[in-house]
Design goal:
homotetramer; alpha/beta; nine-stranded mixed sheet; 18 strands; globular; KFase_sf (chains A, B, C, D)
Chain lengths: 308, 308, 308, 308
């Protein structure tokens, strides 16, 4: 079974292989220049801060559907331990076991491969059990701070949340951009709101997982044309479930991560952000969203914050 | 064995219990107002970004000295798995096991107790094995974005790094503030550089652990007087090892976390930041340092970034 | 809310506190003497071996109902790694994260407490987050090898499996003993079959969890009168769900573990054993069932084997 | 770099590929027949039991030398939790993170490969990150109960422990067999004592790791000639360190696991067993040593017991 022709045609058009040199491991993050960061800082006029991460807990978004992507299991290794004797300062300590893509996270460029290749034409076999990702591990992303833009597709379409299976199209993105009253610029990080995470927040984990709205395979070209630095949304897998094109699973993953070398984020809670943007009547902000720098990681938790 | 009188006298002077109401769980983070955040954004003039987290790896700073505070064990649960059939997009997934205070982290307010109390007078017994911290868990910290200030004590003293056992005094902090050419303001997050982390970076983990410079028990008053929002440094435990006052272990922890309700950070890599500050001739910047929001956590990893 | 009078009356009658001295940490395992082990070996006449453990897998019996009791998450840390150079012997290595009571296991004596006490009158506070069980940790159990006896209650009642909520009574045990054609002797390890595990084996995890047959609060006296060394069954929690006496949860746990100092086992797969006993027309065998000796553990996986 | 000719010659002579059919996944465990088990049971004359597993603790034998093979990190997820209300039965629960080969364990047949093959000629690529070992996972071993024989090489050579680097030869094994006063029979499990584990027991973990005595590459033929079912010893890696033949690492692993399809065990504490055998003046016993049945595992903890 091979990927459909449509996929390969888009792939050719959006490929960034070689664009920043054969040695590049960070892809579209290269588009975040000093000027972009200054424009991000210029968005800070009220000092209001909005958190975008889900709380990390055992009762998280994972349902067991994706084996090994376990919700955070957080345990205490000491509770009020007076290790220096009775009456001394007592300490409590904790640890965690979790899938790196279990909660609010960035997908790293090594997360998917197709035709045996990852970003920049490197062999998929450079990802191994003992060494993890030899190239483009998330520790190489460095600081992710840029201008963030919310494309509130649900609001632009006048619904609370998009229906399961809905394909967010380039036209949807343009309508949301118009609602936002701005123009996406090179280096921006785009947050696409579908409203789907409301299902999880309401306690319906299975309904959150599927059916789910997601990004159409036609959207990567829209992002590519605007030289977006990264994209995140408020769904479990980023993709439309069931898939837009029968049999094409993870097509957007392959285009973003492998072809474009662009980080993508999932399980971002954009509900409060949507309300704040509507209140403040502006959809751009400084976005601080640096992944935890796990060496060789193909996914990493992030605690993103939008600053107005 | 009880804590020395000196500790109790300082504790009385720096206590913030009740200051933000009996229900408060975030302490000095309350000092980060919109105005403070705007002043932080005003620091961004070049767009240069400096990461302050250590890469997360099994070969991390922990040596086994603190049982259960294990270095990040990062493993793959899938490597190029074609889960939808041969020729389809293949995925790699990873997970981690780690102590929440194993690497670059914030101590939460529940991390230590003394005399059976944590911040705001709550019982230490509110931290439990099954429920973790019922109060002041790090998921409650919310976005941590403020003006950051580097107090480069090593540079101010003209050394590459402070010797093991050196007590950073209020006078050291004032000298570093003078070097910085600014005035610490309410809501600032202060980063105190000792240079100690060079030992770890050079491969000497044991030497990094002890002997170690750290903050004198007299410094919390200095921070309190200036209404600092949080403090981090570049050592394993934050404290002087061996302790400044014989038998008083974790005294600064108790003053910061329990009495003041102030987050403190450890294992922050301030080496590149020191060089950049010297080059840019300014020691203030926008600091984005939101902890991963583990529910009920007494510690949490953070990937702090300084933006100039 | 306190435990009902009936519980306290039974507790008094079955208590073994002090029976093997104030320092004892192993309770009824003391009943397994050399003579008992010799009688166990005498059961071996065909050499046939029957495994009683469930395979350890992520798709195990836990459903998330009991927080933190996670199914085995087994991952590879290396796959065919030629660590000594190309063409050399390659190694694969694995690790696991699991609840110690997640699969086929023994409950240790520290697993439950009531009225602030564990076995032999020790304070429940001797179990701590950092130190685990200071007394009666499963590393102290030592080798568990004895005569095993299957009490096949389901077969004795002529059903494939007992209905959910069924209370296995002393009369049920006596009927199964009669079916077995033997007399329970001091030091025997008794395996009580309800057939409930068929639900899990058929893929119905929720149905396995509840409703569930289990042992009546009247059965500990039956075991006590016969000086049984340990008891295991084929259910998730050992107990009847919903409980036999309204509001009395874990009553049998408290009697076995706290009062009698007797290990109890859960999630033992007794289906093949039932068939073999019926075929061989004998219900006693050598049972090898040593828990993994985790230091300070209140639960531990075991891979029990019956030898005929 | 390829393996030396000597290795390939021995490999040819000891290979069991195809011996139990092309579908076989358990190798020499096939040699444990009912008759062998009966002879094992016949060894039980006193009922004395000797445990051979090291206690499982964070302070275990691993030093970090083998990445990912982490000592057992055992934590409580609940401590005396009254989940059904105040005054009810309280529960404590625990979990563990550990390398499956971190402590007393069996190496599974998938643990090593050479020339792209594992036992019975299967491709090494049948071991994967997501699926683990598709063939010969340790859940397939089934009950491991047989006659055990201690070959006390240290005692036969009149030393407390063999020196680091000592190659245990076939001649050493024969001398120990003579000391034991018995003849190794088909299906026996042989325990080879070097005394090396004394170093760990005395607190010297590094000295335990290397230099270490181990089995010569000439011993697999000795085991093969006698149709031994499995072999375990009291060292960290089973092998001689530094290697007997320069550049040949894990040669015995490859012969035992890949060619013969024979489980091998490491970190077995044979010290008490040595004393008991000397006292009882017999070196054979019933050995119960069933691995924890992790599905697809290439290693698994075991709590072996010798019964006299």
């Amino acid at each position: 079974m091979s990927l459909p022709d449509e996929f390969h045609e888009i792939a050719k058009r959006v490929s960034n292989w070689g664009r920043w040199g054969a040695a590049d491991e960070t892809g579209t993050l290269n588009l975040i220049t000093g000027a972009v960061v200054r424009s991000a800082a210029a968005c800070v006029t009220s000092g209001r801060r909005v958190p975008l991460a889900l709380p990390l807990r055992l009762d998280g978004v994972q349902t067991g559907l994706i084996p090994g992507r376990v919700n955070p299991l957080h345990t205490m290794v000491a509770v009020n331990l007076e290790m220096f004797g009775p009456g001394t300062v007592a300490t409590s300590d904790d640890m965690v076991v979790m899938g790196l893509q279990a909660a609010t996270h960035w997908d790293g460029l090594g997360h998917v491969s197709h035709a045996g290749r990852i970003y920049n034409g490197r062999p998929a076999s450079s990802v191994t059990a003992h060494g993890r990702a030899a190239f483009s591990g998330l520790e190489k992303a460095g600081p992710v701070v840029s201008r963030g833009v919310l494309l509130d597709v649900a609001r632009a379409r006048g619904v609370e949340r998009l229906p399961g299976g809905h394909a967010v199209t380039p036209e949807d993105l343009s309508a949301a951009e118009e609602l936002a009253g701005l123009t996406i610029a090179a280096g921006d990080i785009v947050l696409v709101r579908t409203g789907q995470i409301q299902r999880y927040l309401a306690g319906d984990k299975d309904g959150y997982a599927h059916p789910s709205p997601g990004l159409s395979i036609r959207t990567p070209e829209w992002f590519h044309a605007r030289d977006v630095a990264a994209v995140a949304n408020d769904t479990l897998t980023f993709e439309i479930i069931p898939p837009e094109i029968e049999g094409l699973w993870l097509g957007v993953h392959a285009l973003h991560l492998v072809e474009m070398g662009m980080l993508q984020g999932q399980n971002w809670n954009l509900e409060q952000l949507s309300r704040v943007c509507a209140e403040e009547r502006r959809y751009s902000f400084l976005l601080a969203a640096t992944p935890e720098p796990f060496v060789g990681a193909v996914g990493a938790p992030v605690a993103p914050v939008a600053v107005f």
